[in-house]
TrEMBL record:
Protein name per the record: Branched-chain-amino-acid aminotransferase
Natural source organism: Natrialba hulunbeirensis JCM 10989
Keywords: Amino-acid biosynthesis, Aminotransferase, Branched-chain amino acid biosynthesis, Pyridoxal phosphate, Transferase
InterPro entries cross-referenced by the UniProt entry: Aminotrans_IV, Aminotransferase-like, B_amino_transI, BCAT-like_C, BCAT-like_N, BCAT_family, Class-IV_PLP-Dep_Aminotrnsfr
Keyword presence, Amino-acid biosynthesis: yes
GO biological process, one term: L-valine biosynthetic process
GO molecular function, one term: L-leucine-2-oxoglutarate transaminase activity
Length: 309
């Protein structure tokens, strides 16, 4: 479904609410040519206490941290961005939505150095259902190990959510879909497991949970952090600072992806090798159901993770 089919009408841009169709930029915008933008993707859930943004503060933290290596000054405070987002959700009367803050170097000149380009900032919010499909959450998805490698953290800061880095995600994801898979898995430069194009990955073996460490050139996912916390609180042992070789994927009992968009999505096959018994495994199901209990607020635990609209 495209934006034109959605009931949305407002975008916050550089301090003002503008009509959706008026949120325009010049074709010579620096960020368009050089990928010099940073962004976030958060979800607002429909809860019994009304719409609530999940882990908004952590998304703001990461937005400002992503700007740092690029010496990008976001001209708006955390409070202003928060107020803008809440107002955007209220004005559009959204009960649940995806939230996309973006900041990028704007229009002035097109040297690679962005020194004289202003930083532009925008926030949009729109309804967005399950990223990989409703069935994916229950049955799991088929994943292809991409022939593209992830950029190494020695080449670009992979812990910054930079627009330009998503060329790699696009290539990997489209390659997978061309080959009949739902999503890709990308190995890092060393050939170990990194992450999906827009997801972190978890492996379950003998009842314990493993996920690649931050030094494996991955994004420090907020859902990754959430799942580590929930799993530990459920009593699982979580190893979150390990290298995972490609071969270990095939011998895993269970695999699943996490992400703000993908939530907790089981993986049933990697390169046509069936994982476990080829369906959502018991540990994945346990964590996934805990995750949805939390985000839909059917439990009152972890309330500090929510920003109510
Ligand atoms: N890795 C990449 C490359 C991503 O784009 C995302 C989505 N932001 C993730 C991991 C998951 O991060 P999060 O849980 O914060 O959405």
């Amino acid at each position: 479904m495209g934006f034109d089919d959605m009931d949305v009408d407002t975008i916050w841009m550089d301090g003002e609410f503008v009509d959706w169709d008026d949120a325009q930029i010049h074709v010579l915008t620096h960020g368009l040519h050089y990928g010099s933008g940073i962004f976030e993707g958060a979800r607002c859930y429909d809860t019994e206490n009304g719409p609530a943004i999940f882990r908004w503060e952590e998304h703001l933290d990461r937005l400002f941290q992503s700007a740092q290596p690029y010496e990008m000054e976001i001209d708006h405070s955390r409070e202003e961005l928060t107020e803008a987002t809440l107002e955007l959700i209220r004005r559009q009367d959204l009960s649940s939505c995806y939230i996309r803050p973006v900041a990028f170097y704007g229009y002035n000149s097109l040297g690679v150095s962005p020194d004289d380009c202003p930083t532009r900032t925008a926030i949009a919010a729109w309804p967005w259902g399950t990223y990989l499909g409703e069935e994916a959450l229950e049955k799991g998805i088929d994943v292809m190990v991409s022939s593209w490698r992830k950029h190494a953290s020695s080449q670009v800061p992979t812990n910054a959510k930079t627009t330009g880095l998503y060329a790699n995600s696009l290539l990997a994801g489209e390659e997978a879909r061309r080959n009949g898979y739902a999503e890709a898995l990308v190995l890092n430069k060393e050939g170990n497991v990194a992450e999906g194009p827009g997801e972190n990955i978890f492996l379950v073996r003998d009842g314990e949970i493993f996920t690649p460490g931050l030094s494996e050139s991955i994004l420090d996912g907020i859902t990754r952090n959430t799942v580590i916390t929930l799993a530990e609180d459920l009593g699982y042992t979580v190893h979150d600072n390990v290298s995972i070789s490609r071969g270990e994927l095939n011998t895993a009992d269970e695999l699943f992806f996490t992400g703000s968009a993908a939530e907790v999505t089981p993986i049933r096959k990697i390169d046509n090798v069936v994982i476990g018994d080829g369906s959502r495994g018991p540990v994945t199901e346990d964590i996934q159901s805990r995750f949805f209990d939390v985000v839909e607020r059917t439990t009152d635990e972890y309330d500090e993770w929510f920003q109510y609209v």
